[in-house]
Amino acid sequence: MKRTVLLTSVVTFMAFNTLLTSVHAQEDQKDAMPDEAAAEASVPAETTPSSSKAEAPNKGSGGFISVIVGSGALGILLWLALFGAAGAGVYFGVDCAITVREKRIMPQQLITAVTEAMSEGDVLKALQSCENEPGPLANILTAGFGHVEEGFDVIQDAIGTSADLETEQIMQKLTWLSVVGNIAPMLGLLGTVQGMIMAFGNLAGGAPDVGLLAQNISQALFTTAGGLTIAVPCVAFYYTFRNMANKIILKMEAMTMELIKDLRNVEVVEE
After folding, report:
1. b or e along 103-116 (b: 16 or more beta carbons within 10 Å of the residue's beta carbon)?
2. What is the pLDDT of residues 25-78, one digit of tens each?
3. What are the tens digits of pLDDT across the range 169-179?
4. Domain boundaries, the chain
5. Is the CB of residue 137 less than 8 Å from the CB of residue 105?
6. Cβ(27)–Cβ(63) under 8 Å?
7. Rounded to 5 degrees, what are φ and ψ at 23?
8. Do residues 252 and 105 lie in contact, with contact meaning Cβ atoms separated by under 8 Å?
């Protein structure tokens, strides 16, 4: 668990570091274009100092950090929620990649051991094999072997109930990816609405502050981009892992029925 959390933190930090780097690179490129145009225009020497002083306060005013800080308390909370959603998406994605695997859900060693035990007619040995290889398939088989003295119909009912429980537990892991994929765009949309409200509030005050207006619009666009950047991978991973899980679950159900077929001949002894 500690390794998974550490990996989640590292991947989240790298993803947002890449995003910040690309944003700052675009801003530097935009800042360089007016400087080149000013150099070609060759303004008089007397006005150069004053113009540079006027441009100095606005340099870097549209940066990503300034957008977050200038978005107010609600905007900062929204960005913290987006960062948290990104971290949760990475964590649940890594967790599903580790747990939703055929080798982990139905290990081949367990299948081989149970097959050999059932060919020998040794149910106790099969139960011991399930205890040695814990997992969804082992839990299902244990539920069936635990009712071996009650007849094959009872065994099937027990296995069906246990299979439904194990399937639900597997799908619950995937559901969290879907939750993150649905919440992230909503957070981005809420940030967009907040940025537009602040922008129109600036316009309603008469002569608008162009820099503040641009910052409000940047807030709206940045939150939208952040929400979509988180949601798209989460939704893609959710459907990918869901299809993998459905395929494994169907295969596990077929394998379970194959392993318990020898129990059809079990006779119930009434005391």
Report:
1. eebbbeebbebbbe
2. 444 554 544 444 444 444 444 444 434 333 334 444 446 677 777 777 888 888
3. 888 888 999 99
4. 1-40, 72-265
5. yes
6. yes
7. -65, -45
8. yes
